[in-house]
Amino acid sequence: MSDYKDFEMPLAEAMTTQRAIRRLKPDPVDDALVLQLIELALKGPTAQNQQQWEFIVVKDPEVKRKLGRMNRIMWRLYRPFARRAARNDVKAEKLNRATEWGVEHFEDVPVYVVACFRGNRFAFPPVVAASTYGSIFPAVQNLLLAARAVGLGANINTMPLWSNFAARRILGLPFGLTPCVMIPLGWPIGRYGPTTRRPVGEVTSLDQYGNRAWQQA
Ligand SMILES: Cc1cc2nc3c(=O)[nH]c(=O)nc-3n(C[C@H](O)[C@H](O)[C@H](O)COP(=O)(O)O)c2cc1C
Q1: Which residues line the pocket of ligand 1, CB cutoff 6 A?
Q2: SS (H, E, C) the chain
Q3: pLDDT exceeds cutoff 60 at 149
Q4: 114 CA distance to ligand 1 centroid (A)?
Q5: Residue 159's CATH number
Q6: What is the C-alpha to C-alpha distance for residues 204 and 21, in angstroms, rounded to an integer?
Q7: 4-16: per-residue pLDDT in tens?
Q8: 118 has which bridge partners?
Q9: Strand order of the sheet with strand 53-58?
Q10: Residue 116: beta bridge partners?
Q11: Which is nearest to 143 in space by CA: 42, 15, 16?
């Protein structure tokens, strides 16, 4: 379908600057661009290449309103815990403020992509959960990186989908499709920037857990 010349950003640059962009302008995003992002998402791997995925592009204000309401319900329940956890932690407080902004402006985001798993498995035992969600999140990460490359803001959003039952009803999904994640897309109000992550040596062991062979003193 596409040529991908607009996506020619060095991979490491895209990976090191892709971050949760919640503050988005309401300006529309071209359908053709959204479809290109999904097309690049589809290059991701799935268990046994079964490609059990389905994507819903949400632009209808009424659908957004209903999902925004679900998001608010979840955030109001979770917010006290998030606030308590963020006490005396400037970065966590900043994250809470950004999340709050995303909740308040949910309906203003021009377009969402909802990634669904075709199947309705119980996510147990863990290996089943791994191959279920593990068949969706590589595509999601591809989509985020592709969005970064063209300068679109994006994020991962699971809170609006906390009730699969309600999400299915709102999106007209059959029982055999499980909505996994919503990706808000729009032109950013702010800037992309470097992410804050723990150093590799702090989270990597050699041969046995806890042997931090590469940890800096
Ligand atoms: C599985 C998952 C679920 C998430 N759900 C939400 C969400 O519901 N709402 C939200 O605002 N951000 C959500 N996020 C975004 C994270 O808060 C964000 O990726 C994280 O804080 C790192 O942000 P950074 O890349 O800007 O450093 C989610 C991220 C992941 C990986």
Answers
A1: 19-20, 22, 95, 99, 102, 155-159, 195-196
A2: CCCCHHHCCCHHHHHHHCCCCCCECCCCCCHHHHHHHHHHHCCCCCHHHCCCEEEEEECCHHHHHHHHHHHHHHHHHHHHHHHHHCCCCHHHHHHHHHHHHHHHCHHHCCEEEEEEEECCCCCCCHHHHHHHHCCCHHHHHHHHHHHHHHCCEECCECHHHCCHHHHHHHHCCCCCEEEEEEEEEECECCCCCCCCCCCHHHHCCCCCCCCCCCCCC
A3: yes
A4: 15
A5: 3.40.109.10
A6: 28
A7: 999 999 999 999 9
A8: 177
A9: 53-58, 111-118, 177-186, 153-154
A10: 54, 179
A11: 42
The structure's pTM equals 0.96
Distance 22 CA to ligand 1 centre (A): 10
Domain that holds residue 74: 5-203
Residue 102 C-alpha to ligand 1 middle, in angstroms? Answer: 11
Considering the domain boundaries, does residue 215 fall inside one?
no
Q: Is residue 211 part of a domain?
A: no
Q: How many domains is the chain built from?
A: 1
Residue 61 binned pLDDT confidence (cut-offs 50, 70, 90) = very high
What integer best gives the mean pLDDT of the chain? 95
Domain-embedded: residue 214: no
Query: What is d(CA 122, CA 116) in angstroms, rounded to the nearest whole number?
Result: 15
Read off the pLDDT band of 45 (50, 70, 90): very high
